[in-house]
Amino acid sequence: MASFVTNSSLYSPMVAPFSSLRPNAIVPDILKPDIAAPGVDILAAFSPLAPPSGSLGDKRQVQYNILTGTSISCPHVAGVAVYVKTFHPDWSPSAIKSAIMTTAWPMDKSKNPLGEISYGAGHINPVKAIDPGLVYEAFKDDYIKLMCSLGYSLYDIKQISGHNISCPKSSENVPPRDLNYPSLTASVPPNQSFTFCFHRTVKNVGLANSTYKAKVSPNPKLNVKVVPDVLSFKALEEKMSFNVTVSGGSLESSAILSTTLIWSDGVRTVRSPIVVHSYKFEG
Fold it and tell me: How many distinct helices (H) and strands (E) make up the chain?
């Protein structure tokens, strides 16, 4: 999660320099952060047991304080998740996360040079999140398959999941980028051309009879093809799948390219960042 600072001279919020401004080091094929939210100079509740200045010699007690940090942006997102849950009490956690991510306001890349690896899907938008139209969902079994594909030991997976499990053969050749995540990210080797495919499934939570058409924001350095590029739903909760093929020329080391996949029914807009990067991590 990214924190941002606002300025009246900017067209959109700017990610604060103390936020994590690099790709996901554990699973480079999953975009982090997911979302950006207010986290600089926030008026927040404060424990009267703690000194407001942080100095041990400060004996003052206050109920509120001006705070900054990603730990301050986190409560904003938690509050939005609860807000969405009040409208959709039967939604899964991943559906709520998807709704928050795919309805986020786009942020200005010229003010945030690292783009999506600094702000994720964009600036959180609580009002839009209650009616996303489509959601991407991933469940416990999907994450177990992900851990299996990443080579986690059965012992480690048991510690995380709380259950004895065995890795299904179907997980052996599943790339992490095929986790049904609301963003689409791929780590590629530097100085090599690339072609890869994402597989995604969306669930209709908008109108029963609805048709969504795909659009990809132009980026001359990326060739993106969506198949099918039209999804026609006949019922609520209906699921449909699609593939996104991305190709391009070589990237220098520690470089990033991005674009956006947008599904729209003419009223709702379902945005997913597509990110290709060549960052490498040791260890």
Answer: 6, 14
